Amino acid sequence: MHDQNFKNLILDYPVQSLEFFAGKEAGPDLSDARIIPIGQEQLKERLGDRFRELDTPLLVEWPDGRREAILFLVEEETQSSTFSIYRLAHYCLDLAELMKTDRVIPVVIFLRRGDHRSELRLGSDSSAYLEFRYLACHLWRLPANRYYESPNIVARLNLPNMAYAPEDRLEMYWAAQTGLDQLETSSEKQNKYSDFIDFYADLSDDEVARYRMRYIVERRDNMGLANVLREEGRKEGRNEGRNEGRNEGRNEVIDALIESVGVLLDVKFGFEGIKLFPQLMEIKDIQQLKMMIHAINLAKTPDDVLKILNDKPIVV
């Protein structure tokens, strides 16, 4: 699961991935390069039994010839104890021979704390006949608050995998989700990587409730409330809705939106907002829920909400 998550991430955002995970070697002009993923099936066919299924290699070329092409091999390791430097070295040598290049940079992303070898030396007491190292990115060690406003979407998506104090957990989650909203314009990728953030943040039900209250309601001016509630609804529905079909997922979205609108009514109108709950529970259409969100934002009283929904004038 983790391997596939990171393969997708690297393929969808190759420039940002290399800048974040391998910035030391990527250089400042990576956006001018052409990045070509080398397909696993092609490698398997050509390397045969020696093939080891690591993450997708990326060939980086500069069309203007300013730099020689570089082959980046990026591997994600969930548990450091399973990492094998021998396997990685063997794979690098195989691929270097296949691609006819010595410009190979292995990069390893460690998600969890643990011991692992950082270099390999084959030889005797007097001489080394093979030395091997790799670039290591220890996500669990990076301070999340340093990347809260990063313009690199890969950094923002990986905030849940970084180090943060327990009391900063919701702030970290907010920074990750708003980063996705600000830096990605594709709705398909927003859905996809909202899942990525949820998977690694793994908020409890209590944390989800507190997040909705503190960040969605209190900070609605910083991020469109309808957009936030829509995203929250999708997250509720995605856990099971995607596996059981769009209809069930849609129902989960509606239920989550109803719950969130109820919180908004309670926060804005207190006890008086309760009179709208029966009507709220009858709404089964996402567009109508959006209209209710808009009405609550405009209204000064619960009665105003109903007037706006019924296209009646409000007496100021």
Q: What does the overall shape look like?
A: elongated
Q: Helix count?
A: 14
Helix content: 40-55%
Strand order of the largest sheet: 1-2-3-4-7
Structural class: alpha/beta
Q: Mean pLDDT across all residues, rounded? A: 80
| Strand runs, count | 7
Order of helices and strands: HHHEHEEHEEEEHHHHHHHHH
Largest sheet: 5 strands, mixed
* Share of residues in strands: 5-15%
Low-confidence segments, given as residue ranges, are 220-227
Using only C-alpha atoms, the radius of gyration works out to 25 Å
* Cα distance spanning the termini: 56 Å
How is this structure best described in words?
The chain has a 5-stranded mixed sheet with strand order 1-2-3-4-7, sandwiched between helices. Strands 5-6 form a two-stranded antiparallel ribbon. α13 packs across α14 (302-309). The chain is built from 14 helices and 7 strands. It has 316 residues and is an alpha/beta fold.
List the helices and strands and how they pair.
Elements: H1 2-12, H2 14-21, H3 23-26, E1 34-37, H4 40-47, E2 58-61, E3 70-77, H5 85-99, E4 104-110, E5 119-123, E6 128-133, E7 135-138, H6 153-157, H7 169-183, H8 187-201, H9 205-217, H10 225-244, H11 246-269, H12 277-282, H13 286-298, H14 302-309
Parallel strand pairs: 3-4, 4-7
Antiparallel strand pairs: 1-2, 2-3, 5-6
Helix pairs in contact: 1-2, 7-8, 8-10, 10-11, 11-13, 13-14
